[in-house]
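sorry to bug you again but im stuck and you know this stuff better than me. theres a chain ive been looking at and ive put its sequence and its fold in token form underneath. id like you to explain what the token line says about the fold, in plain words if possible. anything you notice is useful, everything is just below.
___
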Amino acid sequence: GQLGPIARGVVHIHDTTAPHVLSALTDGPSTLNLAFSEPLDVATATDPANYVVAPAAPVKTITLSPDHTVAVVSFAAPLTEGTSYTAALKGIKDASPDGNPIAAVMQPFNAENIVYTLASATLPKDAVKASPLGLPVLKRDSWTMNLLVKTDAKPDHRVVLAGFGKPGDAQGAGAGTRYIAVFPEDIEFWYGGKNLKTNSPLDLGRWQMLTATYNGDSLALYKDGEPIGKERTGFDADAAPFVTVGASDPWEHAHTFAGEVKHFTIRRGALSDKEVRKLFEDNPPSP
């Protein structure tokens, strides 16, 4: 019941770490949220001269989040959909006494919040593993995955097609994984040892569009713009996020997809049924 002795001292911290960008995500047609690794200096972080966007998108105002880790950039006009923008950042300092400046960086972003794009790949020889910034890997993050796929051969048993998150195994490891999979009998969604079954097979010899969405509460899978499976579920946060396309299955490490994929995208935010249908109608797969 007696208090121990009290010790006092002064710790001098010499912070030499510069801030860096964690993600660049649009919030509406005229706003960009730039998340940084640490609190920023208000004067330099809200100076429009430190943000140059190309193609030209004049910056109207810049405000900081209450914790000074997110710069909210408001543009004078809406961003153009389908356009790839780059924000050249310089002169922005952190809030430490040393005011460490950010290294000059060219940060890409777009109006659709697409954080990863793969134009095309022939699998399995062109299998992909990448670590893009901004993947929606937190528990409540909403997201949409979309791709076109074509194969002339019936898929192997339990083939992982494309997705993101660290692959686990059939015993439940890797609960943060989010992968579109194809089985001999149907298209499925695999996550953390669980499967959303659809009873809708992958057609042979033609291009088809597969889409998966998660709105923070419900997972949905679509084929050619029409829903083929839905369920309420949740995801764990993923500690080692990366994108894989055409990897071997995480169960036996023996099965891979043989075919073609193109226009694979991952975006933040869940498209609605109507939006998925319109995406298909606006970009119908070729025969």
About this structure: Helices lie at 42-45, 273-282. The mean pLDDT is 90. The CA atoms of residues 82 and 91 lie 29 Å apart. The chain has two helices and 19 strands.
